[in-house]
Design goal:
D-Maltodextrin-Binding Protein, domain 2; alpha/beta; 312 residues; 12 helices; 12 strands; 10-stranded mixed β-sheet; Arc Repressor Mutant, subunit A
């Protein structure tokens, strides 16, 4: 018969919970120790204390690092919520003393970060001068994971599938278009024939990119599967390669609709393929209460269509 052991709550400290979460995210005690700014021996001691407090083995150690047992995953799930509540308490107490303030952290896709967010942030800064903003740029899939893990307050990303439960609000409809160097493709009313696509190297972004996922989906529906595909790490790299005549690419119209870009490249649609439309979305966690700074930004977007007008 299994004995149910009570958790010694007095030994469950925020630091120990945070270390457990970091082991889950980073795969080793050493990396978790670095993330929490403690030494590895101290981190190991804290984790052993947490195991003793719960009466269960939480970590599974192997030669390459450490992972969580089933019990460890249960504790980590609750740890994320406990730490989020403590962060909310700290933010609200500070707000009582100083009013609206703090740092708003946003993870954004390259499309939103380059073509949409700057203009919105300018208007937001005018209305909320006490809020500092920190921006991270990453592929849309990574943006969603960072929001789900609580690494950032909010995310802005293109339509992307994910196993995480997140709150998504569409802020802008965007279209993906093809781009080619001037004169490279024969176009009819702004459209290229499918065989012209197959005859070129197609330049794409990273696998986690919403732009790439949407492009692949629309082309596959039309039976278009390019034979030569080169993967680049950013939309900027795709534009430079297209200008150099390496091949053709597919990007958000928001990135292509730029005076400098239009002098050297031409945008096109693919004949027989419906317009590749996808939403850009404001992403937030359903398990974590917004900080005052993040709540101010969400309200700003909702009331002023803050991201609906691109900077250019």
């Amino acid at each position: 018969m299994t004995t149910v052991r009570d958790v010694r709550v007095e030994s469950v400290s925020p630091l120990r919970l945070r270390l457990l979460l970091e082991v889950q995210r980073r795969g080793s005690i050493a990396a978790a120790a670095d993330a929490c700014a403690v030494g590895q021996p101290s981190a190991s001691m804290h984790l052993r204390t947490l195991e003793a407090a719960t009466g269960r083995m939480l970590l599974r150690r192997n030669g390459r690092g450490s992972g969580l047992t089933d019990a460890g995953s249960v504790v980590a799930g609750h740890a994320a919520r406990i730490l989020a509540v403590l962060d909310e308490m700290q933010n609200e107490l500070e707000t009582l003393e100083t009013g609206e303030h703090g740092t708003l952290t946003i993870a954004t896709s390259e499309t939103a970060g380059v073509a949409v967010l700057p203009g919105a942030l300018q208007r937001f800064a005018e209305r909320h001068p006490g809020v500092a903003v920190s921006i991270e740029t990453a592929p849309s899939g990574s943006v969603l994971r960072r929001v789900a893990h609580g690494d950032v307050d909010l995310g802005i990303a293109g339509e992307t599938r994910t196993a995480h439960t997140l709150d998504r609000t569409t802020i802008l409809d965007d279209e993906i278009v093809g781009i080619a160097a001037q004169g490279r493709l024969r176009l009819d009313a702004g459209c290229a024939e499918p065989d012209a696509i197959d005859g070129n190297i197609v330049l794409v972004g990273p696998p986690d990119s919403s732009t790439r996922a949407v492009t692949d989906r629309y082309l596959a529906r039309a039976g278009i599967r390019p034979r030569r595909v080169w993967e680049l790490d950013s939309a900027s790299a795709v534009i430079h390669a297209v200008r150099a005549g390496v091949g053709i690419g597919f990007l958000s119209w928001l990135l292509v609709d730029d005076a400098d870009a239009r002098e050297q490249i031409v945008a096109f649609r693919v004949a027989g393929v419906e317009p590749m439309v996808r939403p850009l979305q404001l992403i937030r966690s359903v398990d974590r209460r917004l900080t005052p700074a993040a709540a101010a930004f969400v309200t700003f977007v909702a009331r002023n269509a803050g991201l609906a007008a691109p900077a250019g």
